[in-house]
Amino acid sequence: MLGLILTIVIVGLIAGLLARLIVPGKQNLSIAMTIVIGIIGSFVGGFLGYLLFGKDAADGVLQPAGIVGSIIGAIVVLVIWTRVGGRRSITS
Known about the structure:
The protein is mainly alpha-helical. It is 72% helix and 0% strand. α1 (2-22) packs across α2 and α1 (2-22) crosses α3. The mean pLDDT is 80. Belongs to the UPF0410 family. It is found in: Cell membrane. It is a multi-pass membrane protein. This is GlsB/YeaQ/YmgE family stress response membrane protein.
């Protein structure tokens, strides 16, 4: 169980960092938030992969296509995060 959690965090960090490198613009995110974006992106990428190809985690947890899907999912989540987060304004 601990190995699975550690794998999820590491893949989330890698996917989040690569998404931040690919998406243009400045993102004011901490390392923890980068990991969260990557983990959420992994779920989004896994869900999209299941919808498109009918594959799931029973076919293997750590696959190159799964890692690529995690990065694509993290990019989608980061773009949505920057678009929604950029609309907030503070009024006095």
